[in-house]
Amino acid sequence: MPTITTKDGVEIFYKDWGSGQPIVFSHGWPLSADDWDAQMMFFVTRGYRVIAHDRRGHGRSSQVADGHDMDHYADDLAAVTAHLDLKNAIHVGHSTGGGEVVHYIARHGESRVAKAAILSAVPPLMVKTEANPGGLPKSVFDAFQVQLAAGRASFYRDIAAGPFYGYNRPGAKPSEAVIQNWWRQGMMGGAKAHYDGIVAFSQTDFTEDLKKINVPVLVMHGDDDQIVPYADSAPLSAKLLKNGTLKTYKGFPHGMPTTHAETINADLLAFFKE
């Protein structure tokens, strides 16, 4: 399996398919590069080079005890892009991966970056604070950690079968295969990485990162997102970006790259070609 080794000795697994302008995909918590199957298959057949890595502690990357924070996530992504010597790359991040992309560009600069898209993404800040009154109470994320530590197998099953894909909504038609694939990806990773990752995605403030970004960024979010609530995320991120465009999807869930891949892929393609 193709991997790179970071400065602190972590093996990061990645996929690298095709040729052409590179698109780099950053996945959500607690998943892996496999969550981008629908996008990677779409874009590799349309003349793009598609790359996706498993975040440290996730998927096929090293299950290390430490470094599960946005600084390390961004630095690991930078290590992958440098190893592959990617230029004029488009970065696409879903959920926690959207935070990773934003932090990577702000922290490592735009010399290798052409554009970015963040989907159902955690920026600017998920947790409720005095400065972010619309955020979710810290107790919500503390409860996530308690449930994960008590038994993540059932916890992950409940997330996938319920709010992640909107399968708990009236009239929804749950896909057992999609639920099982989410569960499979989650259980491949390390419990410690996922436990710490809850703090990373909920308590990292990306406000200053967003202000630093100059390249065009497409901010895509469903207004029925039960994981990263719409009102306190996408519209705020789009305002903070110098060159941000907000695209809102009525009724779409958090996992819209999977449940509505045809729509999401078409809109990404249009943005890439602009």
UniProtKB/TrEMBL annotation:
MF GO annotations: hydrolase activity
Alphabetically sorted, this entry's keywords are: Hydrolase
Q: Which residues form the AB hydrolase-1 domain?
A: 22-254
For this protein, the record's InterPro entries field holds: AB_hydrolase, AB_hydrolase_1, AB_hydrolase_fold
Question: Which Pfam families would you find in this protein's record?
Answer: Abhydrolase_1 (PF00561)
Q: Which family does it belong to?
A: Belongs to the AB hydrolase superfamily. Bacterial non-heme haloperoxidase / perhydrolase family.
Name this protein carries in UniProt: Alpha/beta hydrolase
Organism for this UniProt entry: Bradyrhizobium canariense
